[in-house]
Amino acid sequence: MIWRSEQPRLPSGAPSAGLSLFETLMALTILALVVGVAAAGMRGPSPALELRRHAAGLIRQVAAARLQAVRDSHTVWIDLNGLPCDPAAAPRADLFADGTGQAPDLCLTHPDAPTLRLRMDPLTGRLHEVGQ
């Protein structure tokens, strides 16, 4: 015995052609997900994220200088030209052999993001973000 499947027919008796509503909705859903993921990937990072990335790099740089100061038992300084919040402040960070440090508050700015402020803890010589 051979089994044959017949093509579904419309009530009028003609064979149905095309996709069902469910199949169409599933295809559109998948298409929307693919377009959404692609569009999100084409945007660059936000200005606030760029500031945080820059701050993290600066924090790493200060930590490395502090480590060098402690290891080599002498003062290490970092040029901070253009970063102090107060233009009259000395544009450098001093990290001492005992692990302490001093630096002015630093302001990282971007026209499309709020200012990110960094402060050095004088007892630990570590730079950290200051809440607004």
What does this structure look like?
With 132 residues, this protein is an alpha+beta fold. The protein has 2 helices and 6 strands. The protein has helices at residues 21-42, 47-72, and strands spanning 76-79, 92-95, 101-102, 106-110, 113-121, 126-130. A hairpin with a 4-residue loop joins strand 5 (113-121) and strand 6. The chain starts with 20 loop residues before the first helix and ends with a strand.
Number of helices: 2
Order of helices and strands: HHEEEEEE
Mean pLDDT equals 86
State which percent range the strand residues make up: 15-25%
Rg, Cα atoms, Å: 31 Å
The helix content, as a percent range, equals 25-40%
**Annotation, overall tally of beta strands:** 6
Distance between the termini: 81 Å
Oligomer: single chain
Shape: rod-shaped
Q: Biggest β-sheet: count, sense, barrel?
A: 3 strands, antiparallel
Which structural class is indicated by helix and strand composition? Answer: alpha+beta
Poorly predicted sequence stretches spanning 5 or more consecutive residues = none
Record the strand order, biggest sheet.
1-2-3
